[in-house]
Specification:
By secondary structure, chain A is of the alpha/beta class. Chain A has a single domain, classed as Thiolase/Chalcone synthase (Peroxisomal Thiolase, Chain A, domain 1, 3-Layer(aba) Sandwich), CATH 3.40.47. Helices cover 33% and strands 20% of the residues of chain A. In chain A, the strands form two sheets. In chain A, strands 3-2-4-7-1-8-12-11-10 form a nine-stranded mixed sheet, sandwiched between helices. A two-stranded antiparallel ribbon of chain A has the order 5-6. Chain A starts with a strand and ends with a strand. Chain B is built from one helix and ten strands; from the N terminus they run ββββββββββα. In chain B, strand 2 and strand 3 (15-23) form a beta hairpin. The chains are: A alpha/beta (382), B mainly beta (139).
C-alpha cells in the first residue's frame, strides 16, 4: 500500500475539430506528450487505463505506442470516462499493484447533439421514438427547476457562458476562441428553454494523457509533481434527478456529485473552502451553476451573487473553468474529464500562460458528470 | 388506437392511465413497469395504474428536431417536455400538449391524454401519452 499518487506527466491534443487526424492519432499524440513531459517511454509503463465514446478502444493504441505486454483496460462511463480512468489508475497505484502507469482519454464526434439508443440504457424504444432521448432537454428541465427552487434569475446563464468564451480566448488548446457577449449569448437560437445555443457545449474532438506514479517516487520524474490527494466516483441514488430518466422518485435525493465531491474532499483532508481553482462540468451554463453548489464550493442560491461579483473569474476569489470549460473546449467525451486534470496541473505548476490564475494555486478541484447519473471528483495539490 | 408501445398505458374507469409498477414491500412506484425495486432492491413489483392527474414539476421546449431514434414528422414543430408529479407515486417524464413556455408554469395542474405524434407507413396515426394543462378542460 502507498498513501499517495502523483501526476508527473501531462499531454494533450488540442480540442476542437482536427480534420484528417483520427481520434486514435490524437490519443497517441497526447500519450507521447505526457511521456515526454515525465521523461519516460511507453516501455516504462506498468499499466494503462483509457477510454473513448466513439473513436475506438483505448487498449488497441498499444499497436502504435508499443507492444510491451502491459495490462491496459478500457474504461467507459459516459462523460465521466476520463474521471473513471483516473480513479482506476489511482486505485492501481494506491493498492500497491503498480507504481507507474498511463491514463488516456480521447474522442472524435460528428457535429450535433448525441443520439443514443435507449436499449443501451435499458429503456424501451418508445422513449427515443417520441423525442425524449435528448440530453439537451434534460439540462433545460433541470436548470428550470433549479432556478425556480433557489429564486435565481435566468440572466446568470448568459454570464456563465460569456466567462467560458472569455477564458477560452486565452487558451491556445481551446476550440472556441472568440469572445461573445452575454447579450449575444442570450439572443442566440433557443435550444431547450431557457438555454440557448451558445450556453451549450458541443461534441468535439481531442485527447489528453497523464502519467501517474507513487507519490514518494514523483520527484524522479518531475520537478513539479501534482498530487492526487482525493479521487471519488459515485452513481445516482434513488430520488436524484438525472439524465435519461422516464420517471424519478417522488422523494428527492442529492445528486451523485454531492457524494462524490464529499468523498474526494474527505480522502484529501481538504475542505471545499480551501480550493484555489476548480474545473467543474459545464455541459451547459446551467450545469456550472448547479455543480458549483453540488460540489460544496458554495451554498445553493449563492451562485448569482458570486457570478455577478466576478468571484469565478481567473482573477477572482474562486476561479472556475479557467481553460474555458466544456463550453469553449467542446466535449470529446472520453477526453473531457482528463482535460480538467490537465488544466489544474498547468495551474498548480504555474504553466497556464495567459489563463494562469495570478496567485499560483495550491489546491485544485475537478468534477465531471455523465449519463445516466455518474460523477467523478478529484482534489489535487502541489 | 395504435400506441407507440402498448405496454405504457392501461384502461381505467376514468379513462386511459399510465401503467407502472408498485413495490409490494416498500410501495415505491416506477414507470414503465419493471421487475426490480429501485428503492428497497427487492423483486416484488406488481402492475399498477398511475394517477391520471398531477402537477407540472419542471419543463422545457425541444427546439430542434431530435436525431434518430426520434420518429416524429420530418416537418418539425417545437414541442414541450416536462416532468409531472403524480402525488404519492412518482414524477413521470412526458410530452406536454402546450408548447408555449409562457403558458407553462411549475406547479400547474395537469392530466394525461393520448395524442398522435406521427403517422405510420399505412397512414394510421401512432399515439403516445402527453400531459395537458387542466385549464384546457375547463375552456
Amino acid at each position: 500500500m502507498t498513501d499517495g499518487v502523483a501526476i508527473v506527466g501531462i499531454g494533450m491534443h488540442r480540442f476542437g475539430r482536427t480534420k484528417g487526424v483520427s481520434g486514435r492519432a490524437q490519443a497517441v499524440h497526447a500519450a507521447r506528450e505526457a511521456l515526454r513531459d515525465a521523461g519516460l517511454s511507453f516501455s516504462d509503463m506498468q499499466f494503462g487505463f483509457g477510454g473513448s465514446h466513439s473513436a475506438g478502444d483505448a487498449d488497441t493504441l498499444v499497436s502504435e505506442l508499443g507492444l510491451t505486454g502491459l495490462p491496459f483496460i478500457n474504461v467507459a462511463n459516459g462523460c465521466a470516462t476520463g474521471g473513471s480512468a483516473l480513479i482506476s489508475a489511482d486505485a492501481a497505484i494506491r493498492s500497491g499493484q503498480h507504481e507507474l502507469g498511463i491514463v488516456i482519454g480521447f474522442d472524435k464526434h460528428p457535429r450535433g447533439a448525441f443520439n443514443v439508443d435507449p436499449a443501451e440504457h435499458g429503456i424501451g424504444s418508445w422513449y427515443g421514438e417520441t423525442g425524449m432521448m435528448v440530453t439537451t432537454q434534460f439540462f433545460g428541465m433541470k436548470i428550470q427547476r433549479y432556478l425556480h427552487d433557489h429564486d435565481i434569475g435566468s440572466d446568470v446563464l448568459a454570464l456563465i457562458a460569456e466567462k467560458a468564451f472569455r477564458n477560452g480566448a486565452l487558451n491556445p488548446n481551446a476550440w472556441r476562441r472568440d469572445r461573445l457577449t452575454a447579450a449575444e449569448i442570450a439572443a442566440a437560437t433557443m435550444i431547450s428553454h431557457p438555454l440557448t445555443q451558445y450556453m451549450y457545449c458541443s461534441p468535439g474532438e481531442g485527447a489528453v494523457a497523464l502519467v501517474l506514479c507513487r507519490a514518494d517516487q514523483a520527484r524522479r520524474y518531475s520537478d513539479e509533481p501534482v498530487f492526487l490527494k482525493g479521487a471519488a466516483f459515485r452513481s445516482r441514488r434513488y430520488g436524484s434527478f438525472e439524465v435519461y430518466a422516464p420517471w424519478i422518485a417522488a422523494e428527492r435525493a442529492e445528486s451523485p456529485t454531492v457524494q462524490a465531491s464529499q468523498a474526494a474532499f474527505e480522502a484529501a483532508g481538504i475542505a471545499p473552502s480551501e480550493v484555489d481553482v476548480a474545473q467543474i462540468q459545464d455541459t451547459e451554463s446551467g450545469a456550472e451553476l448547479m455543480h458549483m453548489a453540488e460540489t460544496g464550493l458554495c451554498e445553493h442560491g449563492e451562485q448569482e451573487h458570486l457570478i455577478k461579483a466576478g468571484d469565478n473569474e481567473i482573477e477572482g476569489r474562486l476561479p472556475i473553468n479557467t481553460d474555458g470549460g466544456c463550453i469553449a473546449n467542446g466535449e470529446p467525451v472520453g477526453a473531457s474529464g482528463l482535460r480538467q486534470i490537465y488544466e489544474n496541473a498547468l495551474q498548480l505548476r504555474g504553466d497556464a500562460g495567459a489563463h494562469q490564475v495570478p496567485s499560483r494555486p495550491h489546491v485544485g478541484f475537478t468534477h465531471v458528470y455523465g449519463a445516466p447519473g455518474i460523477s467523478a471528483c478529484t482534489v489535487l495539490t502541489r | 388506437m395504435r400506441m407507440v408501445d402498448d405496454s405504457l398505458v392501461t384502461d381505467t374507469p376514468d379513462g386511459p392511465a399510465l401503467l407502472g409498477s408498485r413495490c409490494s414491500d416498500c410501495a415505491a412506484c416506477t414507470f414503465p413497469r419493471q421487475a426490480g425495486c429501485p428503492r428497497c432492491t427487492g423483486a416484488s413489483m406488481v402492475d399498477t395504474p398511475l394517477a391520471r392527474r398531477g402537477s407540472l414539476w419542471t419543463f422545457t421546449i425541444q427546439g430542434f428536431r431530435p436525431k434518430e431514434p426520434y420518429t416524429g414528422p420530418e416537418e418539425f414543430e417545437p414541442f414541450a417536455v416536462g416532468y409531472v408529479e403524480l402525488p404519492g407515486q412518482l414524477l413521470v417524464e412526458t410530452r406536454l400538449t402546450e408548447s408555449d413556455p409562457e403558458a407553462l408554469e411549475i406547479g400547474m395542474p395537469m392530466h394525461v391524454e393520448l395524442v398522435p405524434f406521427r403517422t405510420a407507413d399505412d397512414g394510421a396515426p401512432v399515439h403516445t401519452f402527453a400531459f395537458a394543462p387542466d385549464r384546457e378542460v375547463r375552456a
